[in-house]
């Protein structure tokens, strides 16, 4: 799987080294950290960064990883995620937070400072399937799918549009305006100036020439996508910086 840093710690380092860019946990597997501790860690980064944090949340997908973490049973990850997110919101917004759930219990705790962003940092729900879409409709400020889930492929604007329409339907059932839920999208495959080819010989979206990637951006924007998160790739820092410069100068400045 390659090297991977702990994302909240990494976010705190990046926050200290920057002034303007937004920070995104992409995504934090919610059940892996105790709810109150996770809420405090995230709030700390958010406050110290001056309100630049967006919290990308997921329930997780790898049972072996969850078992190694010693967290609640993998089969209960959806319920755990929902309850932990509810705990985050209580701790971030209430003067006297209290919760009595199956996985989280606290009463009248002191939780200061509160996040800078009000009512709380934006919560983007990662995932492409029905459970993630329903969770977004219930508690998400944004929907954050990717183009990499073979069980729920959202790798074309048309497939993405179907998922977005389903989100609107689920939100409508709950009396929410689905159109007010932020649409973000993770371009999973690293930006590559040479087109990557899929299993059927098709070009993978957001790879290839600058013009092709600009066309991809426009196609997804037409379906309501407001934020695209790119992976720049590269094993050496010079390669990563070169990819960032190409993406910025050749692709995005002409979009």
What does this 3D model show about the protein?
The chain has 255 residues and is α/β, with parallel strands linked by helices. 41% of the residues lie in helices and 14% in strands. Helix 1 (7-17) runs parallel beside helix 2 and helix 2 (35-48) packs across helix 4. The protein has one domain: Luciferase-like domain (TIM Barrel, Alpha-Beta Barrel). The chain contains 8 helices and 8 strands, in the order αβαβααβββαβαβαβα. The mean pLDDT is 95.
What is the strand and helix layout of this fold?
Blueprint: H1 7-17, E1 23-29, H2 35-48, E2 53-58, H3 63-69, H4 77-93, E3 98-100, E4 105-107, E5 123-126, H5 130-139, E6 142-144, H6 157-173, E7 182-187, H7 210-222, E8 227-230, H8 237-251
Parallel strand pairs: 1-2, 2-5, 5-6, 6-7, 7-8
Antiparallel strand pairs: 3-4
Helix pairs in contact: 1-2, 2-4, 5-6
């Amino acid at each position: 799987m390659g090297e991977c840093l702990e994302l909240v710690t990494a976010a705190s380092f990046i926050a200290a080294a920057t002034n303007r860019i937004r920070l995104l946990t992409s995504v934090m597997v919610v059940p892996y950290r105790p709810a109150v501790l996770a809420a405090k860690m995230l709030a700390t980064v958010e406050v110290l960064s001056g309100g630049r944090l967006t919290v990308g949340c997921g329930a997780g997908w790898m049972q072996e990883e969850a078992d190694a973490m010693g967290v609640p049973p993998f089969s209960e990850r959806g319920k755990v995620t929902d309850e932990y997110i509810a705990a985050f919101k209580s701790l971030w917004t209430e003067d006297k937070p209290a919760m009595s759930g199956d996985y989280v219990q606290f009463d009248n705790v002191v939780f200061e400072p509160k996040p800078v962003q009000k009512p709380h940092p934006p919560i983007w729900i990662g995932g492409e399937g029905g459970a993630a879409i329903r969770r977004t409709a219930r508690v998400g400020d944004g929907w954050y799918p990717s183009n990499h889930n073979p069980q729920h492929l959202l790798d074309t604007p048309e497939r993405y549009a179907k998922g977005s329409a389903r989100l609107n339907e689920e939100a409508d059932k709950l009396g929410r305006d689905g159109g007010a839920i932020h649409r973000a999208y993770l371009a999973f495959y690293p930006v590559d100036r040479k087109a990557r080819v899929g299993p059927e010989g098709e070009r993978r979206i957001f790879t290839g020439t600058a013009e092709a990637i600009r066309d991809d951006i426009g196609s997804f924007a037409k379906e309501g996508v407001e934020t695209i998160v790119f992976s720049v790739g590269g094993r050496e820092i010079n390669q990563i910086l070169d990819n960032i410069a190409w993406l910025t100068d050749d692709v995005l400045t002409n979009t």
